[in-house]
Design a protein that fits this description.
This protein is α/β, with parallel strands linked by helices. Helix content is about 60%, strand content about 5%. Strand 5, helix 15 and strand 6 form a beta-alpha-beta unit.
Length: about 475
Amino acid sequence: MDERAAREVVLAHAIETTDDEHQLLRAEERREASLSARNLCGLQGGRDAGRDPAGSFLQIRAALLLDGLERRVPALKAMRHPPRLIGPAGWLVPVAGFLAGALTERIANPHRMDLLSPPLLGVLGWNLLMYAILVVSAAVPPLRRRGAALFARPWLPDGWRWPRRRAPSALAAAGARFAIDWQRLAAPLHLARGKRILHLSAALFGAGVALSLYARGLTVEYRVGWESTFLDAGQVHAILSVLFAPAVWLFQLPGFTPAEVAALRFDAAGSVAGGARWVHLYAALLAIVIVIPRLLLAAVSRWKETHLRADFPLDLGLPYYRKLLGSLSPVPLRLRVVPYSFAIDETRGQALQAVARSMLGDTAQAVVQPAWDYGADPEDMPSPDAAGEPATVTAALVNLSATPEAENHGTFLDHLARALPGKVVLAVDQSAYAARLDGQAGAGRRLEERRRLWQDFGSLHKVPVTFIDLRHPPDA
């Protein structure tokens, strides 16, 4: 899935997850979009069956939903097709860097080339410092992750909403959710894109400086030399020898002697003879330290950017995507329900079917297995049926009215986790407890406290926890 398709999928995700009251998209529209996307992307043996079925399905479904919504709510267009500023910035910033280097007056003053030019030495030192930081961050993963996290950190203030001047409130909430989600998901792509622009700009800045030296040398005779209050000719020769050593070695340029350096002191009436040699040395040094390394880094960043744009890293394991993609399985997925001290009547059984569809897709089915008795020994209870499709999920069903007990509920959970590793979720039905608290003072607080107990209990046993209400199933 490429960047453009992923953006639409994330936008559809934000709208559907924030539009709880179906003000923007009705349930019928969502189901019809899923059915149409399944048919259009050839998931039943069509010509596109060899392509990525999950990505094609999500992309087509999101496009269908957003096309229909945009016709009713034109304000969606601003979210769906924002102005693309990164394209012009990708060449404007490097061009500006080239012009800044070419117009640098401090490095190449008219009629004079200072061998110890502070601006030039500063530019070289800055680039060397950047290379050192890149090497350290690559060698220390925590530093690399911390740098990437800066791009993923939400920059929108709490409570921010999409401008509501022309957008409904539901769309404004969805826009805020989308902006935060997209910023987090696209952080690696934005980081690679930003590095590419900055490295290319730095390379062109160095190239601009070198070209300005040659261009000015066509019409100006440089007076090459140096001056210093604290350094003598021998020390300057040592500095210049180290500075220009890469250029002399790599490009086989002529070196210089201490006597030649001493003769170039400005207060000693240094000669302009051989000025072209120093221009070549400076240009070669700029190419070695700035232009070539930065172009290589820009090429690496470009490769990463291209890869991320073509294969956007979208986590399809999230419940939203898992539910949508569950309907793609040729065999309906199963939600295996193992109740603990819980009687499942016909009404609750129908509600569990809705829960299964909500978790695993519209074609999923709930299969209720024999309930465990309170305090039962695992040896006395039937083993859970582990047969079925690999994607089958087991829900250990408990009642929120009960408080979690390690010797009972914990034994139950641990037994299921051993029998079905990696496939168990703790489903806590809060319908009975909520009905008992209805109308009582502090009911919301007490309900939240009990939920927190079960949440901590699930974390202790390394089992994810989901709260359901069998009086009001998801399809109700």
